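Meet my pick.
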Amino acid sequence: MPRCPRCGTPLPKDENLRFCPNCGTRIKFRPVGMNLVMKDLSAGVFGALISVMIFILSPPEVNLYFLPSFASAIFVIYIYRVREIKDALIVAFTVYLFANGILGGLVLGTFAMAGEPYNTHWIPQIHDVILYSFEPVSAFIAGYVGLRISPARVEERAPVAAAEREERLGGVVYAS
């Protein structure tokens, strides 16, 4: 049974419940199951599109390695206000996975449409190997950093009704 995060009062399982009946704290039921996963995945796909945009708009002679995915994962985790580490990691890994898939499709598709073989005569240097190998680790770091800088949600409280005033002989008496 769900409880109020402020006072701990058991709450009824009413999806339309907006405020705690005891203390007035705003209640927001978190999505569960498939809804939560879909929210994380949609945030990750959005981040992947941002990552691809950063990559495409960067100068062709500059190799950004994992930086577009790293920055966009942190940005999306911040914007979506992800609250738990497991959700932040799902978002970060989704950004990396989809960004690599989209970019791979764009690169290979470009060669296929041009009818050219995929042979760039590029010999990787040791720093290329290290930085590309660091990419999965940077997804963990992006998830953690994004979670830490994500703003806390402001707690909203129900308006408190003012006490009625009754005037009688002898002064003011407040009734609740």
Q: What stands out?
A: The helical segments are 34-57, 67-79, 85-114, 126-133, 135-149.
